[in-house]
Amino acid sequence: MYRNTRVEWGDHDSVAQSPTFATVADNTVVKSLTFVNTYNFPNKGKVNRNPRIPTVAALINGDKCAFYSVGFSGVQDTLWDADGRHFFHLCAVDFIFGNGQSIYKKCVINVLGATLKPGEAGYITAQGRTNPNDASGFVFTDNLVHGTGKGFLGRPWRSYARLTFAEIGYYGSGSNTGRRVSWVKKLSGFSVQSMINLDFITSGGWVQALPISV
């Protein structure tokens, strides 16, 4: 599992220079590691005294990169899913930002709201599309979202940020849609499949050709 081997670093401030792990190479494949930025990471569930500033655990800036059973741990700007097509399978993370074109499948997403300042909410994503014709976006399918405190699914970042939320096959205490606003849009089956299908990132079949089966 991803918890067995940890790579830790405690840098901060610059998102470009603080990552514990960074790759700009295409065709990067990582399995069974955890990358942690320890600078302001909660200590045994308690608020870290260091200021809440960007502390990146991983920067992914290559194309056709895949991560299997990999953990990403930090507080602010944990996983910089910067650019390129990426596939995350059975991973764990608390916050994702960037302009990547990525699928997160069967991952665990931990909301850290209660470990921040009292009354402060956490976020899961900040999508940063910079061009209206850019195909980038984050797709989450068959994931588990849990944690403590208040949290939001996402917030826009940069001029053409794009967020689409669809409730499909939800269960648990938050699955009751009876109090949703009347103008909420319902995605068609075709729209859903176009996003959750591997074709969203796999022109050329690069995910299927990887040495690790999905």
Describe the structure in your own words.
The structure is a single chain. The protein has a single domain (about 5-200), classed as Single-stranded right-handed beta-helix, Pectin lyase-like (Pectate Lyase C-like), CATH 2.160.20. The protein has about 210 residues and is mainly beta. It is built from 1 helix and 17 strands. The protein is about 5% helix and about 30% strand. It comes from Brassica oleracea var. oleracea. This is pectinesterase.
Query: How many structural domains in the coordinates?
Result: 1
Provide the gyration radius in Å: 17 Å
Strand order of the largest sheet: 2-5-8-11-14-17
- Structural class estimated from helices and strands: mainly beta
What is the name of the CATH superfamily? Single-stranded right-handed beta-helix, Pectin lyase-like
Overall morphology: globular
Distance between the termini: 15 Å
Q: How is the biggest beta sheet arranged?
A: 6 strands, parallel
Count every helix, treating DSSP H or I runs of 4 or more residues as helices.
Answer: 1
For this structure, what is the CATH class?
Mainly Beta
What oligomeric state best describes the polypeptide chains here?
Answer: single chain
* CATH overall fold name: Pectate Lyase C-like
- Return the average pLDDT rounded to an integer: 85
Strand percent estimate: 25-35%
Low-confidence stretches: none
The sequence of SSEs as H and E is: EEEEEEEEEEEEEEEEEH
Q: In total, how many beta strands?
A: 17
